[in-house]
Amino acid sequence: MGKKINPISFRLGVNKSWKSRWFATKQAYSRQLEEDVKIVDLIKKNWKSSAIKSVLIRRAEGQIKVKISAGRPGVIIGRGGAGIEDIKKKILALLMSIRGKRVKNIPKLKKYEKSGIEIDVAEVKNFEENASLVAQSVAEQLEKRVSFRRVLKSSLDNVSKQRQVKGVKIMIAGRLNGADMSRTEWVIKGGIPLHTLRANIDYGKALAYTTYGVIGVKVWIYKGEVFKNNKS
Known about the structure:
CATH superfamily of the largest domain: K homology (KH) domain
CATH topology of the largest domain: GMP Synthetase, Chain A, domain 3
Strand order of the largest sheet: 1-2-3-4
Shape: globular
CATH class of the largest domain: Alpha Beta
Largest sheet: 4 strands, mixed
Radius of gyration: 20 Å
Distance between the termini: 25 Å
Order of helices and strands: HEHEEHHHEHHEEEE
Number of domains: 2
Number of helices: 7
Strand content: 25-35%
CATH architecture of the largest domain: 2-Layer Sandwich
């Protein structure tokens, strides 16, 4: 069970929370879920260089609030906030295309054009303590044809030096260094208690697109146990 389930979804409601927070009726649930998934994909695809940690979406009546946590927030914001307006326009166009396909009576989206879509960008200071950013960093280095053994060792050392980190595991799979057959390699330091629900485990994954094919990257970071009196 510990190897086959996402460590974050396994701990939802214990020490992890949902990335989409809203309530919907049975008729609107599937449409809003599709919108959330495509909004996250849109932001991560178009602003990949900004080192995005997470995208949190909240909904209220006539409002969509998107909070983006990134290591390089300046790439998203742009000059004079031009990047924020660009995100709003792309999200609005996405909502109109989805609602045009799924809903017969298309609700007017003028309320979103004025003040309905809010974008908040937060900076992530500690790269090495976040599994998603570490996985993206490993994938970027593999795409630059850096030796996978060197990437694994350097990434493991950088993460394990952090004070909060109790254990780390980095795994890659694919045609490593252009080998004819794909294989899986991993490095681990410390403990990774995947079956312990109170364990605070951060999990992230990324894809490295190389000339020999796609290499998958997975990262687990264990930051100690969370109890009721110190739950974050």
